[in-house]
Amino acid sequence: MFFVPVVRNFVQGPFLFLFPFVVFSLLGVALIVLTTKSKIKGKHRKFLLLTGVSAAGFFVSIFLHNFFYALAIVSSQIVVLKYIFEFLHTVFFLLAIPICPLGFLVGAIGSTIIFVRKRKRK
Questions:
Q1: Cα separation of 51 and 55, whole Å?
Q2: Among the four residues 2, 71, 92, 108, which has the most C-beta atoms within 10 Å?
Q3: Range of the domain at 98
Q4: What total number of domains does the chain contain?
């Protein structure tokens, strides 16, 4: 019963724009868990895991990119920390924008093709 008001306040509050990202990441985690517990083997398993990791990693990478960018701004007077945080925020930006969506597309298309081929054989 506690969970429903928390979700309602989250969805109606100022964090409304985060809700789709959180749901997408949670679905990615669910796909990872279900794939690891299932009896799927081979390439199909790899494509499903790639899809789940890319979906879960998207929101996490966006969050970490913004976090390390803020740390780089705050620590701008300490040169070593500034460059470390700038490197990290660049890495997570590259993960979030081109790599995770590309991995999601490759995994989704690959697992769909393998699923259709297995269906045709039966």
A1: 6
A2: 92
A3: 21-121
A4: 1
Residues 6+ apart with CB under 8 A from 88: 64, 68
Dihedral sign (CA 16, 100, 108, 25): negative
Q: What is the pLDDT along the chain (122 residues), one digit of tens a residue?
A: 455 666 666 566 666 777 788 889 999 999 999 999 998 899 999 999 999 999 999 999 999 999 999 999 999 999 999 999 999 999 999 999 999 999 999 999 999 999 999 888 87
Rounded distance between C-alpha atoms, residue 17 and residue 109, angstroms: 27
Distance of CA 23 to the CA centre of its chain: 10
Q: DSSP code of 98?
A: I
**Residue of 50, 72, 53 whose CA lies nearest to 61:** 53
The residue to which tokens 């669910």 are assigned: 30
